[in-house]
Design goal:
Helix 11 packs across helix 12. The longest helix is centred in the middle third of the chain and has 14 residues. The protein starts with a helix and ends in an 11-residue tail after the last helix. The protein is α/β, with parallel strands linked by helices. It has one domain: P-loop containing nucleotide triphosphate hydrolases (Rossmann fold). The structure holds adenosine-3'-5'-diphosphate. Adenosine-3'-5'-diphosphate binds next to helix 3, helix 7 and helix 13.
């Protein structure tokens, strides 16, 4: 099916219509934040599911009950999916919430309540690679077609949640940066224990070294992949066909080298250089 058949355009970006019907978008627009909410914000395929494992474990002081019993989309729900049956209004603080939306489309109360945000970024060439495989297995996304064609769509932002460049810039240019923790997928790959410790510190949660270590161990790719509440194995095959590509697919950095041809990588770099020329942030992959 085509973009026109599968997607809706919300504030200028594509969103899969079956997951984000009008009532979900209304829920998102009207959502009332609390100042002690914790928001995980990401461009898709940047490490959302990973963070949906790490943050609940930090907040529970290492108790795995919630990550063992609740699927990731219930323990840290995406606001734009609008799962009103979860009754988030009644959830005790601190609530853990997720979004793939850009900074500028957050609901009005986000800007007044000022909850903490963890914004996870990933090398866009790996985001592209992960996304390409994800589009092969998810029936609510367009079939990616030939790789070069999908690459152009990705670089033009003609994909779900729009342009990676716009997304990252929107969050990096946020007005109130002191409440946002910027962390990259690559830092988490390089030193997960240190990343867990830094996230805990940002969330004002003091953890023993032993608990930090245990959380990091649990969140290693090979271990998280076994967690049925995080590996999407409970999702029907008609929605996600993991025989085509697993959701927790490779879990590495630099897989783009196995995916992009030399001319594709060169083109990617040229577009990146142009679109990111005014960005001062020092990314680990630069
Ligand atoms: P790959 O497709 O490159 O393997 P999101 O959750 O934002 O959709 O991102 C999915 C990507 O994060 C996938 O990347 C997935 O394998 C990876 N991922 C999920 N959990 C991970 C973990 N514990 N360690 C490393 N990568 C992880």
């Amino acid at each position: 099916m085509t973009e026109a058949e599968l997607y809706t355009v919300y504030k200028g970006v594509y969103m899969p219509a079956s997951i984000h019907p009008p009532q979900s978008l209304k829920y998102f627009e009207e959502f009332s934040f609390r100042s002690d909410d914790i928001i995980i914000a990401t461009y898709p395929k940047s490490g959302t599911t990973w963070m949906q494992e790490i943050v609940p474990l930090i907040m529970s002081g290492g108790d795995p009950a919630s990550v063992e019993t609740l699927p990731n989309w219930q323990r840290v729900p995406w606001l734009e999916v609008g799962q009103s049956q979860l009754n988030l209004e009644q959830r005790p603080s601190p609530r853990m919430l997720a979004t793939h939306c850009q900074y500028n489309v957050m609901s009005p109360s986000f800007f007044t309540a000022k909850p903490k945000v963890i914004y996870v970024m990933r090398n866009p060439k790996d985001v592209f690679t992960s996304s390409f495989h994800h589009h092969r297995m998810a029936s609510f996304l367009v079939n990616p077609g030939p790789q070069t064609e999908f690459l152009h769509k990705f670089l033009d932002g003609k994909v779900q949640f729009g342009s990676w460049f716009d997304h990252v810039k929107s969050w990096l240019n946020a007005e109130d940066k002191e409440r946002i923790m910027y962390i990259s997928y690559e830092e988490m790959i390089m030193d997960l224990k240190d990343s867990v410790a830094r996230i805990a510190q940002f969330l004002d949660k003091s953890l023993d070294a032993e608990v930090t270590e245990k959380i990091a161990e649990r969140c290693l790719f090979k271990n998280m992949k076994q967690n049925k509440m995080s590996n999407y194995s409970t999702v029907p095959r008609e929605l996600m066909d993991q025989t085509k590509s697993e959701f927790l697919r490779k879990g590495t950095s630099g897989d783009w080298k196995n995916q992009l041809t030399a001319p594709e990588a060169e083109h990617f770099d040229a577009v990146y250089k142009d679109k990111m020329k005014d960005v001062k942030y020092k990314f680990v992959w630069d």
